[in-house]
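As described in the Methods, two query proteins were run sequentially through the folding procedure within a single session, without resetting any intermediate state between them. The first query and its resulting C-alpha cells are shown here.
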Amino acid sequence: MALRRILIWTGIPVLAVLLLVLLWSWAWFIPLAERQASARLGRAVSIADLDVDLGRVTEIRLGGVRIANPEGFPEEPPFAAVQQLAVRLDVMEFIRHRRIVIPDIALEQPALRLIQNPDGRNNYSFPALAGDPDAPPTPPEEQPQLGALRIRDGRAQVSLAQLQSEMQVAIATEEPEGQPARIRATAEGTYARQPITGELTGGAVLSLRNAEDPWPIKLDLANGPTKVALEGTLSDPLRFAGANIRLRLEGPDMARLTPLTGVPIPPTPPYRIAGRLDYADRAIRFTNMEGTVGRSDLNGDIAVTPRPDTRPLVEATLRSRRVDLDDLGGFIGAKPGEGGDRRQAARGRVLPDTPVNLPKLEAADIRLTYDGGSILGSAMPLDDLHAKLDIVDGAIALKPLRFGVGRGRIEGNFDFAPVEGGGLTAKGEVRFQRVDLSRLMGVTPLGEGQGAIGGSARIDTRGRSIAEMLGQGDGAVTLGMAGGNLSSLLVDLSGLQLGNAILSALGLPSRTKVECFIADLGLRRGVLNTRTVLIDTDSSLISGTGTIDLRRERLDYALRTEAKHFTIGALTTDIEIGGSFRDPSVRPEMLELGARAGAAVGLGIIALPLAILPTIRFGIGEDNRCEGLVRRAR
C-alpha cells in the first residue's frame, strides 16, 4: 500500500508533465499575445504561428503577423504584414539586471501600406504609443537595448494624397563580403506630382544601439529637376541625439523644396546650395550655408524647430555679398529672375499681380533676417538692403525693410494679416532720409542732379497681390528737398526753352540750382491725387497737376514752368504725361503750343522782329510759396 501510494503521488505528476511535454503547443499563447499587442498599438493584431526556443538567449518566432488599418481605411491590404518575425531575448541579462536586451531581430518579407487621405487622416499614426508628453523621459539604462536588425525582401507602398505622392519602396539589409553590414532602401514613384527616385544607404543596424559610435548615412534623391544629396553620420540615431551631415541642394526653383522640407519657400531662380546639417536643442539646423540663387550669392544659417501642437518655427539669418533684386521677386508675388514675369508684360502690366500664397504663409512661423551687402545693376540706384521678417499665425511683420541710397536710406515698416476668402490686409509707412538725388537721377534719362530728398509715405489697404493692394489703397506721399541742383535739361524741357534744351540734349547740360522741391500727393482708392508739386529753381517755378492711377496703371499728369525773370525763346506750355506705366507718353499741350507758335509765325510774316513776342516771358518774380511749404513739411 505504501508503494502504491508512492507510485500514485509521484507517477501522476510525472505523467502529467510527460503529457504536457508531448502535447505542449506555444500556439496556446497566441490569443494572449494578440490581446497584449492590440492593446499596446491600439490596432487589431493577428498572429498565425508562435514558436519559442528556450535558453539563455531565448528565440521567439512569430509567423503571419498582421497589423490592421484603423477605422475608415480598407481592410486589405493591412497596415503591415510580416511573413515571419524572429526576436532573440537575453533572458539572463533580464534576470540579473532587469534590462531588456534584444540581440537580434529578423524580418522576412515585411510589407507596409502607408495611406494619407485628402483630409489629412492617415493609417500610420499610433496615438496609443504617444504616451504622456509631460512625463519625464525614460533613463537610457532602462530603455530596451536593440541589436542587429535583418530585413529580407521588405517593401512599402506609400500613398500621400496631400502631397500628390505615390511611391514604392524596397528595403533590405546587406552583408557584403569584406564590408560592414548596411541597410539599403530604394524609392521610385511620384512625389508632389513630380517623378521621384532615391537611394538611402545606412550603416549596420546593429550599431544603432551604440550611442558612442556615429551611424553613417548617405542619401541621393531626385524629385523632378530637384536634386538632394547628403552624406555624413548620425549620433545615437534611435534617440536622434545629433548629426554631422553635408547637404547639397540643386534645382530650378527653391519653392519645389517646400513639399520635401515642410518649410514654406517663395519661388526663386535656379539655385545651388551646400552646407552642414545637424540636430541640437531639438532643432534641425542648416549651418555654414553657401551657394548661389540666380545671380545672387547666399550664405547663412537656418534652424527648424518642430513643435507637436502647432506649426514649426523657422529661424534664418541670411546674407548676400551681392544681390540681384530680380532674384527676390518671389517674395512679393512676382516671377523671380531676369526679365520679370513675361505673362504680366504681355498684359501690359508693371506692378506684380501674382496672388500671394496664403497656405504657404500659414505653414510655419518664421523669423528671418536678411542683409544684402551690394545690390547689382548699373541702372539700380539702391546700394544695400536689410530686412527683418516675422510671420506668426500667418500674420506678417516686415520691420524694417531698409535700402541704402548714397548717404541716405529708404526705410519702411509693414504689417500684413490674412483675411477670410483670401488676400491680405496691409498697413505700412515709409521714410525717405537724405536720399541721394544724384543716385536717383543717374539711372534716368532726365539728366543729372544733386541734393538730398526726405519725406514719408503711408498706405492702408487689402488685396491678393501687390498690384491689387496698391490699386485700392488709401494713404499719402510727401517728399521734399531744400537746396541742390538739377540738370537744366529737366527744367528746360518742361518749359520748351529750345536753345538750352538742345544744348543739354547734345550732352552739354548746365546746372540749375534748386531752391526747394515739394511733392504732396494723397492716395484714395488707388489713385494718387496731386495736392502740391513744386520745383523752385533759381530761374523757374515748375508746378505739377494731375493723377496717377495705380489700379489701371495709367498716368494723367501735367508739368508747367513759369519763368521768374525776363526770357526770350521760351514757348511756355504744359508738358502732358499720359499713357500706361509700361508705355508712357510725354508731349507738349498741343492747343496752347499751337496758338503760341501760330502767333509767332503770323507776326513774323508782318514783321520779323515781332515774331519773338509770343516767346518773351516777363517772369513772375520771386515766389515764396516753396519756402512756406518746406516749413510746413518740416
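Immediately afterward, the second query was submitted; its sequence and C-alpha cells are:
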Amino acid sequence: MKRSGQITVFFSLVLMCIFSLMCGLLESARTAGSRYYLKMAADSAMDSLFSQYHKEVWNQYRLFLLEGKDEAELEEAWKDFMEPYMESSGWYSMEIEHAEALQVYRMTDQGGKYLKQDILDYMKYGIFENLTDETGAENLLTQLKEAGTIKHLSGAYSGHTKEAVRLERAFQDISDSLRKQKELWQAAGSELGSYDGPGFRRKAAELEQEMKRMPPLVRAYGKIADQLKEKWKESEAAMSQAREELSQEVRDTLREETACYESYINEDGERRREIEALPEKMTQIKEIIERAKERSVEVEEIISEWDDDEEDEGPDEDELWGSVEEIWQKIPIPVLPYSNGVKDPEKQKILEQVEGFVQSGLMKLVLPEGTEISKGILDFTDFPSASRQGGQAETGGLVERILFQEYCGSFLTDFLSEEDKAVQYELEYLIAGKNTDEENLKKAVGDILMIREGMNLIHILSDRQKRDEAKALANVITGSAGLLPLAGVVAFFIMSVWALGEAVIDVKMLLEGKKAAFIKTKETWNLSLTGLLELGSTGSCPEGGGDEKGMGYEGYLKLLLFIGNEEINRYRLMDVIQMNICRKQQDFRMAHCVYQAEIKGTANARHMFFGGRNPYYRMGVRTEKAY
C-alpha cells in the first residue's frame, strides 16, 4: 500500500511556524525582561553607591554626603556594583560595557541649595518646641526690620543732636568773643577816663585783635549749620522711605519726637542771619576805633605842645579826652538776643561718652569678669565659601529659614558652649565670616547690640513716662534759655543713648547665660537715667536682672541667621563642616561631596533564540539618585 507524505510535510511547516512564533514571543518577552532587569540592576547599584555616605558627617551633622572626587570615580564605583547583577543575569545574559555620569550635583553647587534640601529633609523628623508657623515668622521678620530701621534712623538723628551741640558751642564761641569785645571796649573807656592815651590804644588794639577772630568764627558756625541742614534733609528722606517698615504707632511717635529738629533748624535760620551780619559790623567798628585812636594821638600832641604860661591854666583835658570818648561811645558792640542752648555741657558729654565706650570697648563692657576669648583661627584655604559666586541661590520660605537656624543651633557651638574646640565660635562665624574667633564674637555681639538697641528704642517711644524723663533731663542740659526746640533735639538723643545703654546690659546678660526680653516692658527694663549717667561717667555696666521668659544668647544668634543672607549662611556652614571633618580626614572637601547624580549605562546583551552571525545587541539605561 502506497502512503502519502503531504500531511507530514504540512504539519512540519505548521510546527515550524508555531515554534518560530513562540520563540519570537519568548525572545520579545525576554528582551523586555532584560530591559526591566537592567533598570532594576542600575537603580539597585545606584542605591548601593549612595549607601556609601560619609559616616563621620552623618554622625556629627546628620547629613548624607557621598564623597566622590570626580565623575570617573563615580562611574567605576557604579559599574562595580553592577557586576553582581550582570553575573547573575541568568537567561537575560548581559554585561555592563560602559557608564557615563550625565549629571553630578555637588553640595557646593547652585548656592548650596542641595545642602539646604539635605538639612530640611532631616529637620522634618526633628522635635522642636514652640516652632513658629509662617505667620509667626512673618511677624518676627517685621519686628526685626522695624528694629533695624529704628536703629538706623535714631543713629542718624542722634548724629544731628551732636551737630546741634557743636553748633551751640560755635555760637558760644561767638558770644564769648562779643563778651570779651565788650569788656575790652569798657576797659579802653576806663583808660580814657584816666587820660591814659597809650593805655587806651593798647586796649583798642586788643579789641581790634579780638574782632579779627569774628569772621573765622562766623564761617565755622555757618559750615556746621550747613552740614546739619544737609544731613537732616537726608534723614528726612530716609524717614519717608522707611515709613512702610514702621508700624503706625511707632511712625507717629517717631515723627512727633523728631519734629523738633525741623523747628530747631528753622529757628536757627533767624539766629544765623544776625550772626552772619557780624563781620560787616566789625568792619564798621574798626573804622570808629581808628578814628578814636587817631584822635587820642592828636589830643596827646595838643597837650604836649601847649605853652607853659603861668597866666594860662593849661589845656582842658576833660574836653580834649572827652572828644575821644565821644567817638568811642559811638562803637556799637553787638549783643545777640540769644543765649547758648547747652547750660550743662558736662551731662551732655557724659551721654556722648556712653557711645564712645561702646564704640571703643564694647567687649570690655559686656564680657563676664574673668572670661577669656577663644584664640581660634580659621584657615580659609579651600573653604567652600571661597568658591561662592553669588546671585544663583534659591531663596526659601520663612519657615525654611527658621528650620535652618534651628539646625545650626543644634549642631554648632557658640560662646556659651562647653564643648572644647580649636575654633569655638561656629555660630558666630556663620554670622560674621571672619577668620578668628575673636573677630567673629565681636561682630555677632555688635549685631545683637543693634537689634536690642532698636527694640529698646521702640519701647521708649511707646512709654510716655520714659519720654517725659528724657525731656526733663534735656531741659536740665539746655536750660530755659536758648532755642526752645533744642530741648526736644537733646531729648531724642537721650532716648537713643538710653536705648543703647539698656542694650549693653542686655548683651552682658546674654553673655552671662541669662535671658533678655525680646519686647521690653516696664518690668523687664533695667537701666534708669541715673544709671545711664553713671555708665557714661565710669564706663562700668550695671547688672541686669534677666527675664526667664526672654531669649538667650543662642536665640539671638539664630535671629541674626534668620535675617542674614541665606546663601552666605549655607556656604559658611559648609566651611564649618569641612573644617571639623578635616581634623580626622585632611583631604575631605565639601566640593567633592555628591548629593545627587544621574548615570547612563550601556549593556551588551545576547539574543537567546536569534541573532545569526551577530547575536549581541546593546541596551541603554539611565538611573538617578538623590539623598
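The mean pLDDT is 85. We note this only descriptively and draw no conclusion about the first query from it.
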